[in-house]
Amino acid sequence: xxxxxxxxxxxxxxxxxxxxxxxxxxxxxxxxxxxxxxxxxxxxxxxxxxxxxxxxxxxxxxxxxxxxxxxxxxxxxxxxxxxxxxxxxxxxxxxxxxxxxxxxxxxxxxxxxxxxxxxxxxxxxxxxxxxxxxxxxxxxxxxxxxxxxxxxxxxxxxxxxxxxxxxxxxxxxxxxxxxxxxxxxxxxxxxxxxxxxxxxxxxxxxxxxxxxxxxxxxxxxxxxxxxxxxxxxxxxxxxxxxxxxxxxxxxxxxxxxxxxxxxxxxxxxxxxxxxxxxxxxxxxxxxxxxxxxxxxxxxxxxxxxxxxxxxxxxxxxxxxxxxxxxxxxxxxxxxxxxxxxxxxxxxxxxxxxxxxxxxxxxxxxxxxxxxxxxxxxxxxxxxxxxxxxxxxxxxxxxxxxxxxxxxxxxxxxxxxxxxxxxxxxxxxxxxxxxxxxxxxxxxxxxxxxxxxxxxxxxxxxxxxxxxxxxxxxxxxxxxxxxxxxxxxxxxxxxxxxxxxxxxxxxxxxxxxxxxxxxxxxxxxxxxxxxxxxxxxxxxxxxxxxxxxxxxxxxxxxxxxxxxxxxxxxxxxxxxxxxxxxxxxxxxxxx
Length: 590
Ligand SMILES: Cc1cc2nc3c(=O)[nH]c(=O)nc-3n(C[C@H](O)[C@H](O)[C@H](O)COP(=O)(O)OP(=O)(O)OC[C@H]3O[C@@H](n4cnc5c(N)ncnc54)[C@H](O)[C@@H]3O)c2cc1C
Hints:
By secondary structure, the chain is an alpha+beta fold. The chain has helices spanning 8-18, 21-27, 36-54, 56-64, 79-88, 107-120, 122-141, 144-156, 284-320, 344-376, 379-414, 426-433, 443-456, 461-475, 483-507, 512-541, 548-564, 567-576, 580-583; strands at residues 67-69, 72-74, 159-164, 180-183, 189-199, 208-215, 228-233, 235-237, 243-246, 249-254, 265-278. The chain starts with 7 loop residues before the first helix and ends in a 7-residue tail after the last helix. Flavin-adenine dinucleotide binds at residues 163-166, 171-172, 197-199, 257, 265, 435, 438-442, 444-445, 448, 515.
């Protein structure tokens, strides 16, 4: 079985020593009531609930899966009770506005509880997550009347939410969706169409499900400029919040899929369902992006959460498993063989995964800090923070899910053949985490967003301020223990800066250069950002001698610099190879 213990000490290190969270919250008037002791209690409670209630349902949920029977979807045993406990405990509303029953905690807190939840059970995590995302989009674009009626019920877990974008012929390209919205005399809309792959489209966890649906009015302009957003409840909601008749929306089936089997992925049929416009006509994509950006950060966290469990399980296995002898002399003569940990290659896989995971946690917190500033600060500070979030969101989504998958596969490899059979839980981790690279915009699309909209389009304006900040951090790295990290970090920044310029220049004369460079560029960006995170963590660890914790941090920072970061150079050279190497093949060749 996979094992998981919430890495609370590492989380506190990032929160208190790297990001000095209390000072940060004090510096933002809207956050200065966030109390560090309360946050600690939240982390401890989250750890308890997830380790004791939600994690044990991960394996059984995978075995049983979500079931479809004549339009009714049932979740695996235990999910309903756990969801109720999760909602009643206030976990769905942890980051929500107190006006709607939330606890008003900043992202710098909920990013950590999200990680714990994704480590515990990714299938389960998606049910509350979709509701939180839908509520977030509504809170910014729906009327007060709608929000006051719906949001408290979503945050309490009485109702759930979904995001209905994808259609059989329209995935990445939402401009070609066919779902129709016809205006009715009472101001509502009649929604007709089929959506596929809808996470939590139908289930038995909540008494109502609130669908946010993209659709087109009959006279809408073609393409993405003609998309509007509608709220379609499974059951009609009366003015006093009680439930009325069933709306004309239901699940046609659920998908049978590689992983996250306990998450119901539904085909949803809207057959003249009553819907309500959210935001403005033809501006639905912008409103939906609030939800999608939230979910994208979460999909990066999904990668980290899985990789953390993978690391912990593989490290425990490697300690116990006896195979072969150390190449430098027997280490455990009293035993028939030495532990796997004597072999450098086993250590390579474990240390790489751990170095990625710790950098990923720090990078999520870094992004969360800018999310908090964009939401709670004002003026230029908030605007600059929003730009930073825009730049980093595709990197968090794609790099963390790519590295999360890699971590799970490496951990599986540590188990040898035992990683391939079900008993040890490694194959489930690999199957479950794979989707994070695909949904919420496939990672290639994230890379295109980074390269095209966030880098080339604004002539690297966002990248320049990020690079300047990284150079300042590199200049502060002056301890002997951080010398190799400093060298690698500075080289990475130089490489990122030069490649950014090169792609901007090349793309001026050849439109294919952006997409040709995108994925490898995102990885260069990701590695450089992880080097930055290790620089921040090393800075926080230098000179502290309480126990081996800080010395271990510095050792892993150094390991990252010399044995992980060099992989970036291959990606950089692939960016340099340009588009011609790809596009010179004729279509017939494929
Ligand atoms: C388990 C699961 C849960 C999901 N949950 C939801 C949900 O809750 N709500 C929802 O609406 N959808 C959901 N989806 C759908 C998911 O978001 C899409 O599958 C995903 O965005 C990709 O769309 P697609 O599958 O149509 O692939 P396509 O759009 O056909 O893309 C195929 C490949 O082509 C690449 N590609 C496409 N266009 C371009 C381009 N212009 N430039 C470069 N490369 C391109 C993509 O990167 C991808 O690799 C879910 C999917 C799954 C499998």
